[in-house]
């Protein structure tokens, strides 16, 4: 296993580190982004921890390639704000379309170079979906008709089995969101793409734990660990 550190969108005010983890054996490519929204800090911490754990050998990727961009929007992160414009509406909407923001363009260029089979975009949101179905906290979101639907269901089942508090359980949402990283990855790269949303009113350590466990379930589903 080989872990290398790179800088995306350099040199520019948007420069941000990313990591490529190459497993010993060939296999799928998974892209993990976090911090598309700068105030969703537990997801960023989980992504950075995954990169650090791979670098230290605590987490081993046997097969395939993992690309991790832990803090996409550094400027928004520095101010702990969501970011303006909303970066998750600026990804390309069709094959010939362009990103509407240089940072989204840099992320999507990286993705086009590596052609991910999987894309996990880690976020945080308001509310508990178990109590209020229209909120996004504690959900996995995928595009309608995506081949990732049954995989998301398995991951949710495993997560919920390990979460004793029923109202903290995860739910699946199917939603097409033009301009989002998820929908761009699904439409243009035909990746299995999933948005992970923890509820940010839960304790930070718990949110990091949930994000980490969900990523590990998907790595296992992809046959990478
Ligand atoms: Zn978000």
UniProtKB/TrEMBL annotation:
Name the Pfam families on file: AstE_AspA_cat
Q: Which cofactor does it need?
A: Zn(2+)
Source organism superkingdom = Bacteria
Which InterPro entries is this protein grouped with? AstE_AspA_cat, N-alpha-Ac-DABA_deacetylase
What's a single GO MF annotation on this record? hydrolase activity, acting on ester bonds
* Signal sequence interval, chain numbering: none
Q: The Succinylglutamate desuccinylase/Aspartoacylase catalytic domain covers which part of the protein?
A: 26-133
Instruction: List UniProt keywords, sorted A-Z.
Output: Hydrolase, Metal-binding, Zinc
Q: Which PANTHER family match?
A: BLL3975 PROTEIN (PTHR37326:SF1)
Descriptive protein name: Succinylglutamate desuccinylase/Aspartoacylase catalytic domain-containing protein
Task: State the organism of origin.
Answer: Paenibacillus polysaccharolyticus
């Amino acid at each position: 296993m080989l872990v290398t550190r790179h800088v995306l969108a350099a040199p520019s005010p948007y420069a941000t580190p990313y990591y490529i983890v190459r497993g010993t054996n060939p296999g799928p490519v998974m892209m993990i982004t976090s911090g598309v929204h700068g105030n969703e800090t537990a997801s960023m911490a989980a992504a950075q921890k995954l990169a650090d754990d791979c670098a230290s050998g605590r987490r081993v990727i046997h097969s395939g390639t993992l690309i991790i961009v832990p803090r996409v929007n550094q400027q928004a992160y520095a101010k702990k704000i969501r970011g303006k414009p909303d970066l998750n509406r600026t990804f390309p909407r069709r094959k010939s379309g362009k990103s509407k923001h240089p940072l989204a363009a840099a992320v999507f260029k990286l993705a086009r170079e590596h052609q991910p089979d999987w894309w996990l975009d880690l976020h945080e949101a308001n509310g508990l979906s178990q109590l209020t179905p229209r909120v996004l906290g504690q959900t996995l979101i995928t595009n309608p008709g995506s081949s990732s639907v049954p995989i998301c269901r398995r991951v949710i089942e495993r997560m919920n089995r390990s979460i004793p508090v029923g109202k903290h359980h995860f739910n699946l949402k199917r939603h097409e969101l033009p301009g989002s990283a998820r929908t761009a990855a699904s439409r243009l790269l035909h990746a299995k793409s999933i948005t992970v949303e923890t509820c940010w009113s839960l304790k930070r350590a718990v949110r990091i734990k949930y994000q980490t466990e969900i990523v590990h379930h998907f790595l296992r589903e992809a046959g990478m660990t």
